[in-house]
Design brief:
alpha/beta, VC0802-like, Rossmann fold, seven-stranded mixed β-sheet, 18% strand
Length: 499
Amino acid sequence: MSDQDKPKTLTIGKRRRTEDTTEPRVRSGARARAAMNMQRRQSQSASATSADDRSRPSPTPRDQNKSRTAPAKQAAPRTHGRPQRTAPFSADTSAKTSAPRRSQPQREARFQAAVEHEIFKVFAPCPQGLEEVLNVELTELGYEHVETARGGCRFQADWAGVLRINLYSRIATRILVQVAHAPVHTEDDVFELAYRTPWERWFGAEQTLRVDTSAIRSPMQSLQFCNLRAKDGICDRLRDYEGARPSIDTVRPDARVHLFLDEKTATLYLDTSGESLFKRGWRHSKGEAPLRENLAAGILALSGWDPNHALMDPFCGSGTILIEAAWIALGAPPGIWRPFHFERLRNHNDRLWKEIKAEARSHIADELEIHIVGYELDPVAIQAAKENLERAHLNPSTIRFEVGNALEAMPVADSGWIVSNPPYGERLAETNDAFWRDWAAHLKQHYAGWSVNLITSDLDLPHYMRLKPKRRTPLYNGALDCRLFAFDMVKSGYRKGDM
């Protein structure tokens, strides 16, 4: 195979030996490149007045810096040496790039020791409308400096706290650790921020990478180009520090980075969760209009459900609300059966993680002492609910799933909660006003003392039921603008004319 036919790689190849065996061996590596760059600068300084030298192109550090900040439309040459960029880290870099492969365990141990004593700024996004619920959850779990923000909460935690919140949070969508933050004006500023961030603490060229970008009121013209510049900055740094670039994998990456842009700044987050936290690992069978698990947990929290009291869902579908409730009542952490991205990072302390999970498992109750019951007209949906129940590692007797009509379902206790995602939208067209009036009459007659909580995108549902909600909470089920309506069923609280 000729040299032209050989596949191109991103690894640093060895220099060829010359035929003259008496010539000293030419070495490569970070230290050799630094020495060569120093000699090149001295040579250029000595010949600064030479016209030939001025006209001859030379890959100096200054030229490399200019190529890095060149306009986006001009392809900047990629070079291995960046002395001026790496100056703040030069001593540490030389050790890393020249270290043999067998030093990887020692390097990872050093990263573990460094991060386990550090306090991180963390952002936990959640479904819109559940920010205050997430704030309460974080506070009750013992996290400090919790601040409610748009679409989530900010707080501070050490690395063990980052692991615990991934395990315990029922409301958060993912846990993002802030690793860099700076003002930015151009896409090249995004590149510089990504390049100067010590990613080698977390992952290396041997792992795969994915970068995602989001923005609010950012002046950047192309988020896709910003995403590309952030990815290039990360990959270029790892290539310069470790000799190779990581591969990109948008499906199942080992490391995931999030870039967030606002009017003036950029923030880089390391995603410690991987798959969204609402993916508990048990729901394979879905109903016609399923709720995400963290939204179901948020609805249960907003309803005020007491895990010591009965719970019913007369439109249970594939059982998401009730299975989530059973986990809450048993004290089972939602992340106990699923993997996380932090387990793939260089600083992962497997011993610490096993201790955290062992402690969590020790507090899980063996069985429930309350009634949790779900009804659904569709036998296929009930079968799906039972399959989900089994995958959720719950005893089949924990929840009673039955084929049944909401108009005929009777209460399982003197008081309790109904929390449900009834038919709405396209599914609502299959029903009629008479059904909702009849169901409200059934509730009034048999469920006095119960709290009824319904999430729907149809804001006229209380009108159909001829009931006045005591509370309505705005929520989003995916892209659907919904309301969680709460009704207190008091037999003497409604007039006959309302039915």
